Amino acid sequence: MSTLSQRKLAVITGASAGIGAVYADRLAARGYDLLLIARRRDRLQEVADRIVSAHGRNVELLVADLADEADLARVEQDLASRGDIELFVNNAGIARFAPIAKGSVADSVAQIALNVTALTRLTHAVLPGLVARDRGTIVNIASILSLHTLPHSAVYSATKAFVLAFSRGLQAEVAGTGVKVQSVHPPATATDIWELAGVPLESFDPEKVMVVDELVDAALAGLDHGETITWPSVADEGLWAGFEQARAAIVAASQTRKPAPRYVA
């Protein structure tokens, strides 16, 4: 058994399948003990059993629906009380694809509750302890749709754009400390999120769908390389550098009290 002073604890939300389950395996292989959070106890237990068998690490389970206020508050209290969290993966999320004019308000609210509200509140719970100890890492799982919106992804894309902006703000806050924040932006990835979103995975070109294991391995390699924003499937690093330059230029150009000439009669 690991002692509190010796162990590294990684906390993963949405850990019962897909990206979260692979993060659990990879982090256990790196020597982390785990606290796994998700709604489905049976699937969480399956993940835990595989990890204990393969890696011999300690695994705790916390069964909670992070879209439920009472469950979210319970998880917040648990995480805020811990002094041994070294790495926190904000992975839990859902997608519900539909045009706003035809979609369900409940689906939109559910996406915001999990993808934005839960992610923000759990970061509030974890970050002060990391800053106080001057070490640790937060990994926020966003999406390539943080930069792009489809006719049926207005809410989902907006929630992932929030994750990107939120992560950038956190990165600025912790600059100069021993705390790191990474946002990860997967492309379409072979998980069950698509079936739940109403978009069968079979409808995608298989050459454009990333394998979960390769996605997580790439994201962890990016973290090892010191990346703050990781695009696991984008080969040309210059594309992101160009985007950043254009963003910075727009912000700089906006810093004037005068309206742009095209708006002046």
Structure description:
By secondary structure, this protein is an alpha/beta fold. The protein has one domain: NAD(P)-binding Rossmann-like Domain (Rossmann fold). It contains eight helices and seven strands. The chain has helices spanning 18-29, 41-55, 69-80, 105-133, 154-173, 193-197, 212-224, 237-253, and strands at 8-13, 32-38, 59-63, 85-90, 136-141, 179-184, 229-230. It has a seven-stranded parallel β-sheet with strand order 3-2-1-4-5-6-7, with helices on both faces. Strand 2, helix 2 (41-55) and strand 3 form a beta-alpha-beta unit. The longest helix has 29 residues, at 105-133. 34% of the residues are buried. The model is unreliable at 1-5 (pLDDT under 50).
Q: Quick gist of this model?
A:
The protein is built from eight helices and seven strands; from the N terminus they run βαβαβαβαβαβααβα. With 265 residues, the protein is α/β, with parallel strands linked by helices.
